[in-house]
Specification:
By secondary structure, this protein is an alpha+beta fold. It has two helices and ten strands. Strands 1, 2, 3, 5 and 8 form a five-stranded mixed sheet that branches. The chain starts with a helix and ends in a 20-residue tail after the last strand. The protein binds copper (II) ion. The site of copper (II) ion has 7 residues, from loops.
């Protein structure tokens, strides 16, 4: 197929359009502010792109499915396997189950200033989890594993809140995490249990 005439026609149309646009009278002050507005938009898009592509800051998304009705039978989220675990290279993974109206296990200890990967599953309905002062804020959708890596900046008790309405007891659905100084924290003993993609 010959593209020459089509290309010519498109170029002609583009020239006509730009001539028409240039013929529209625009107040210089308006033009100035429109330019500033476009530059601000470009700056914000640039910051988002740099964060996403250079610093790796992305919205939590993890397409990994799991059968919510059989969590207790699954290898990874069986009761004995919940909580804090470290693998050979020292990476810390926390596995937690959200269910009406609590997060299980009820209490965990994690170190400050260390990346901790949380893997959340729901055993019933849609839940959310939010830990103030961290980037932890994700939905826990039944049938999927939600995974977020976060770092707790300093020792203390951090609240863990459900932020998706999940039923009448929703406002009581919260627990807390103890964050202890990096040098005082010791990895839990049961650390070699299989489960999860990083241990396979
Ligand atoms: Cu809730």
């Amino acid at each position: 197929m010959e593209t020459g005439p089509i290309k010519q026609k498109l170029e002609q149309q583009w020239q006509d359009l730009s001539l028409q646009l240039r013929a529209i009278p625009i107040n210089p002050l308006e033009r100035k502010w429109a330019t500033i507005a476009l530059l601000i938009a470009a700056l914000f898009i640039g910051i988002i792109m740099i964060d996403a592509l250079v610093h790796g800051i992305n919205a939590p998304s993890n397409v990994e499915t799991i059968d919510s009705a059989r969590l207790h039978l699954s290898e990874e989220f069986a009761e004995d396997n919940l909580g804090v675990q470290t693998d050979g290279s020292g990476l810390i993974t926390v596995r937690m189950v959200a269910g009406r109206y609590s997060f299980f296990p009820k209490h965990i200890d994690v170190p400050a200033e260390t990346p901790v990967t949380f893997r959340w599953v729901s055993l019933d309905v849609l839940h959310g989890v939010h830990i103030p002062m961290t980037n932890m804020s994700t939905m826990i959708v039944p049938g999927y594993v939600a995974q977020v890596t976060t770092t707790f900046p300093k020792p203390g008790d951090y609240p863990v809140l459900c932020n998706e309405y999940c039923g009448l007891g929703h406002n009581h659905m919260w627990s807390n995490i103890s964050v202890i100084a990096k040098e005082d924290w010791a990895a839990p003993v049961k650390s070699a249990i299989a489960g999860g993609p990083e241990n396979e």
